[in-house]
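Board work, copied verbatim: 2-oxo acid dehydrogenase subunit E2
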Amino acid sequence: TVTPVAPPAPPTPAPAPTPVAAVAPGSIVPLTTFQNAVVRNMVATLSVPVFRVGYTITTDELDKLYKQIKSKGVTMTALLAKAVAVTLQKHPLLNASYSDQGIVYHSDINISVAVAMDDGGLITPVLQNADAVDIYSLSRTWKSLVERARTKQLQPQEYNSGTFTLSNLGMFGVDTFDAILPPGQGSILAIGASRPQVVATPNGLFAVRQQMQVNITSDHRIIYGAHAAAFLQDLAKLIETNAHSLTL
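↓ predict structure ↓
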């Protein structure tokens, strides 16, 4: 027999969208300065040869940890950023970027996290040195970054110093998606929702596990498929078997 599995916790409801000013049908609304900057960056990435690799990660241990420390102000975003940053220590090429002079291996691991703005824009606040900062400080920093991002009070180094980006649409119930590589970085990780799935256990029985799909987009000029796959494999191992280490 299989040990009974507790029913999964209900997903956190997606935040209600902020009402947008009504736009008259047939009208043209000029892009803001910020939106034009996003356009330029996204078009620039079209010149970069990229590839994508997907991986399924079981999140039961991470979810359990989150429930234990959520009351201390820890956010799931900070946990995911910390997990990625710690894994990048073993895979510096995934934290690197291309230049005409060669591969730039960055001295810091700075995790950018995509945040949707109320006006429809997008910004990527940066958790600097995410591998070295403890999870509680990282969570406090993240909350401050988001608050100041939404009021457009971030300093340039707080949104343009990232070396690796996370884009998480799991809170909207999205299962899987591909993210566009930001200029000046080598990789971006797209994270989907964690859902209960029926899986086969090592002893040939069935059980229910929480699983999420992640997809990495990487610059193929410097990163190859085996590099990305090895990174995802180690990220999954950390989240599935050693999530508690993220609090150390």
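The CA atoms of residues 193 and 219 lie 25 Å apart.
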